[in-house]
Amino acid sequence: MSRLCITLLMAAIIPLMAHAEQTADLTLKANPEATTTEPTNPSPQGTEAQGIKSTTANNEGVDNNKKHEELVHKYTTQDILKILQAQGYGSPTISDNKAAIRFKADGHNITIIIFNDGDLQLFYGLDGKKASLSDINNWNATKRLSRAYLDKDGDAVLESDFMMDAGATESQITNFIRMFQVSVSSYRKFLFETVK
Residue 69 has what pLDDT? Predict the structure, then answer.
């Protein structure tokens, strides 16, 4: 399947999955021993994005009070920072190389990496939380829209990618982040309640 097809599919699925976030029960058991880990070597960011405004040729049947969102093909670190701040995510901090932003969601440290080609990656890891390859394979076989793996230290990591080939609106980026937030909550529940 081409990258464009995957991007278009994700653009259609993410808003539907965001609805599931609102109705899901995501209560988790706390584990004070587990701390978050950092992604290794995020790629540096490229140049600023050029936006394309969404317009309609005919206003018939269009709600003029509804805001038309701008389709952007490449978000800058500052653009993503503004989105995170507007959505109320805590403590956003830009990395030294300006290619990543670390922020808090539901009390958990998440990192968003901005690649040179504009693609985005969300990263969540737990230092000291071990899982077997069988556990990780079970997660990957039964879950969608994220992938789990064991990092070089054997710690459990979760990632998700957003390909920007077709561009994205701010709402799509926001939904991508929210869906990953749901995945992180489910992943923590899986690790702390299922993995022995």
Answer: 87
